[in-house]
Amino acid sequence: MEANRVYNFNPGPAALPLEVLKEAQAEFLNFRESGMSILEISHRAKQYDAVHAQAKADIKELMGLGEDYEVLFIQGGASQQFAMIPMNFASKEHPGNYVLSGSFASKAYKEAQILGVGEVAASSKEVDFRHIPTQDELKINPEAAYLHLCYNNTIYGTEYHYVPDTKGVPLFADMSSDMLSRPVDFKKFDFIYAGVQKNLGPAGVVLVVAKKSLIEKSRETLPTMFRYDTFLNKDSLYNTPPVFCIYMVGKVAAWIKAQGGLSAMEERNRKKAKVVYDAIDNSDGFYRGHADKDSRSLMNVTFRLPSEELEKKFVAEALENKLSGVKGHRSVGGMRASIYNAMPYEGCEALADFMEKFRKANA
Ligand SMILES: *Cc1c(COP(=O)(O)O)cnc(C)c1O
User: Fold this and answer.
1) DSSP three-state, residue 76
2) Are residues 196 and 271 in the same domain?
3) What are the φ and ψ backbone dihedral angles of 100, each rounded to 5 degrees?
4) Ligand 1, atom 14: nearest CA belongs to which residue?
5) What confidence score (pLDDT) does residue 2 get?
6) Minimum-distance ligand 1 atom for the alpha carbon of 102
7) 32 Cα: distance to centroid of ligand 1 (angstroms)
8) H-helix segments, 218-306
């Protein structure tokens, strides 16, 4: 670790790979011989064209997807997708079906409800979102326009470890907090989206990867900027895209490729998560994980301490040890260590060592 930096466990915006930050810094003032920075360049310039096309190609390559899928860049955050999805695809006859597995999953459902086109297919709310609903728990309406999942629940620290069988209903997923963290059978999904500020870049853009044949069915009665086919037909350049964000997402995708792709990311992420979960499991009950073991997230590790007083002390002392951003979300309380792709193994090891020392001093 660089002397003046910390291990950043923030949930989002979150850590970016140091190599990526340094590369962006090195080419900042004169981007590809343009004599200006990427922040100042036209989105129609040839230098930017190459960035845009390469980012899309690398993302599709990492996901193992072909010509039938398209990569779109849309602003408004993942939260805007919660509304755009039902606006474009759901109706009273063909409602959106939702699995409520946490806060963001519930927010997505709420937007569909505002439009009068949302239905619940399953929920783990009664058990405080400690687990991901299983295949047997899903009640999918065969007439549904789609089944919507939140693949990794950033706040509760749970993650899908299976791809639901929808019996032909299109499968939609919010992968904001685990996109490109491990291989997934992406071909089983019709529509995937991710606010990039968790695992892929800075805040400001959402990555959408969806079947072209589906996007082509965007609702025609919507204003231009709310239709997915506007982004498809104009290569996400109908209006000015957030060029800096897309440039950074492209760099992160190239970095993931250089690490060995999604299988290598998974191996690394499993090793990282294990060292932190082991610190919880081997603490004689001092640390209590929020998620059930079979639903644990590789990206967000949530746990409580014996008292809120100790939790405050933990956050403060962690920071003294250069471990930043470990305070949990107010709806769960306690701690949350977000250990996305960019968090090195050493950061997780440092957190686990600190947890062990803190427990010995305070148990
Ligand atoms: C952070 C997050 C969101 C919200 O993203 P915004 O881009 O801030 O709207 C939605 N879904 C998940 C899973 C998230 O982690």
Assistant:
1) coil
2) no
3) -90, 105
4) 176
5) 81
6) 13
7) 32
8) 228-233, 243-259, 261-281
Percent of the chain with pLDDT over 90: 99
Tell the residue nearest (CA) to atom 7 of ligand 1: 77
Q: Are 254 and 266 found together in one domain?
A: no
Q: Which residues pair with 122 in a beta bridge?
A: 99
Q: 203: CA distance to ligand 1 center in Å?
A: 10
Query: For atom 12 of ligand 1, which residue has the closest CA?
Result: 176
Pocket of ligand 1 (CB under 6 A): 12, 77-79, 104, 150, 154, 174, 176-177, 195, 198
Tell me, in angstroms, the distance from the centre of ligand 1 to residue 191's CA: 16
Give the residue from 240, 258, 276 where a domain finishes. Answer: 258
Q: What spacing in Å lies between the alpha carbon of 273 and ligand 1's midpoint?
A: 21
pLDDT per residue as tens digits for the range 180-198: 999 999 999 999 999 999 9
Domain that holds residue 96: 22-258
In this structure, the answer to whether residues 115 and 218 fall within a common structural domain is yes
Q: Does 342 map to a domain? A: yes
Other residues' Cβ atoms within 10 Å of the Cβ of residue 136: 7
Provide the token pair at 333: 């309380």
The Cα 219–Cα 228 span in angstroms is: 9
**214 Cα distance to chain centroid:** 22
DSSP 195: E
Looking at residue 12, what is its pLDDT?
A: 96
Distance between CA atoms of residues 214 and 48, nearest Å: 28
Residue 80 CA: nearest ligand 1 atom is 9
* 6 domain residue, yes or no: no
User: Which tens digit of pLDDT belongs to each residue from 265-292?
Assistant: 999 999 999 999 999 999 999 999 999 9
| CATH number of the domain to which 195 belongs | 3.40.640.10
Paired tokens of 239: 């209006």
The whole-number average pLDDT for the span 156-176 is 98
Q: Which atom of ligand 1 is nearest to the CA of 177?
A: 15
What's the whole-number average pLDDT of the chain?
97
